[in-house]
Design a protein that fits this description.
Blueprint lengths: L3 E5 L4 H12 L4 E5 L9 E5 L15 E6 L9 H10 L3 E7 L12 H16 L2 E7 L10 H6 L1 E4 L5 E2 L4 H14 L6 E4 L5 E2 H12 L4 E4 L2 H10 L4 H16 L7 H6 L6 H7 L1 H4 L1
Parallel strand pairs: 1-2, 1-4, 2-3, 4-5, 5-6, 6-9, 7-11
Antiparallel strand pairs: 8-10
């Protein structure tokens, strides 16, 4: 009987929550990692690397479900990985992006291009996949942690709106979907409870923590210089800027998927901040 769930990306923000919820539910868990991890009750850690797809094969013995996070923008091995998963007939919940535009042959930015390619690889392989198309993760705000402690958050597009998702909500949906064998072949659209501008996000952070934090908008040329220094290509930089600019102009969607599947509304930003208070102070 294939009753084990393989968690790929088991140390990430969402994967760690998936791992924990599976253990709490008493389900056998196998966690894939490039590195050795200490023993953990209810979790079997195995070594594997999606950039070396052959390492995935022995980790799938007895596995009936897979939570899949793709490790970066390079999709060179996506079709080989998808083929391996299809051969094992495992139900895959893939952590994808709500920013994918199905009407475009090429996505507007590199992140959504990567997700679209992995989705395509899974679908064309015949894998039994559910694509969890998520809006922005609240955990992305951890990138501001040092600035929050200093009382000044500097970023581009202060009026860009995002519907932030708590990683626990994503994990709950994934665990329900895989546990029930439901929604195979579907794209589930997941969002947080309400769109918030970046200025509003900083205000909520300050109010929830009881500290003084303000937002200051950064000139785009400063962002470009910073991204170039980190090795980004100009085309990808402009794609990311275009994506952020669209968040200013376009209305950000809110969907009821989290509540329909988990039975409770999505968690708000204030709850996420309290859950990560130690990381932000």
């Amino acid at each position: 009987m294939k009753d084990t769930t393989l968690v790929v990306g088991a140390t990430g923000n969402v994967g760690a929550q998936v791992r924990r919820l599976l253990v709490e539910a008493g389900r056998p868990v196998r966690a894939l990692s490039r590195d050795v991890h200490p023993e953990e009750a209810g979790v079997e850690w195995v070594r594997g690397d999606l950039t070396a797809p052959e390492t995935l094969i022995p980790t799938l013995d007895g596995v009936g479900a897979v939570f899949l996070v793709w490790p970066g923008l390079d999709t060179e091995h996506a079709r080989e990985v998808a083929g391996i998963l299809a051969e094992r007939d495992a139900h895959v919940a893939y952590l994808s992006s709500a920013g994918i535009d199905d009407g475009r042959d090429e996505q507007a930015d590199p992140i959504n291009a990567m997700h679209a390619e992995v989705e395509r690889a899974l679908d064309e392989s015949g894998a039994k996949a559910t694509h969890l198309r998520c809006t922005s993760f609240a955990a992305s705000l951890l990138e501001w942690a040092d600035q929050i402690r200093e009382g000044l958050v500097r970023d581009v597009f202060g009026e860009a709106r995002r519907t932030l998702l708590h990683e626990r909500d994503i994990a709950e949906v994934a665990v329900r979907v895989l546990g029930e064998g439901a929604h195979r072949g579907e794209r589930l659209l997941l969002s947080g409870p309400t769109p918030l501008t970046q200025v509003e996000q900083v205000r909520i952070i300050a109010d929830t923590l009881g500290t003084r934090v303000r937002f200051e908008e950064v000139p785009l040329d400063e962002l470009r210089s910073h991204m170039r220094s980190e090795g980004w290509e100009d085309a990808d930089i402009e794609g990311m800027i275009t994506a952020y600019a669209a968040m200013v102009e376009a209305e950000q969607p809110v969907w009821d998927t989290v509540e329909r599947i988990t039975g409770h509304p999505p968690l708000g930003l204030d709850r996420w901040i309290l859950d990560h208070e130690a990381d932000l102070r």
